[in-house]
Design goal:
CATH topology: 434 Repressor (Amino-terminal Domain)
Number of strands: 2
Strand order of the largest sheet: 1-2
Strand content: 5-15%
Order of helices and strands: EHHHHHE
Structural class: mainly alpha
Distance between the termini: 15 Å
Helix content: 40-55%
CATH architecture: Orthogonal Bundle
Radius of gyration: 14 Å
Shape: elongated
CATH class: Mainly Alpha
Amino acid sequence: MPIKWRLAVLMADREIDYKELAEMTGMHPVTISKHKNIRVMPERLERETLEKYCKALNCQPGDLLTYVPDEPKGQTS
């Protein structure tokens, strides 16, 4: 899981639920809910969608996406 999706974290930090974010972005509430409940970057994330999230949440794209390198094989935590 090299790229984590942090939409739920940003929404929680700003105390915004999926219905509020849907109103702010003009996106369907079901889409927001799906994006909120995943932990990895969505397979198809369009630039327009990312821009809507950034504008509504007053954040940068890097706030929504975090790169987490895979552990080398053979190493355990």
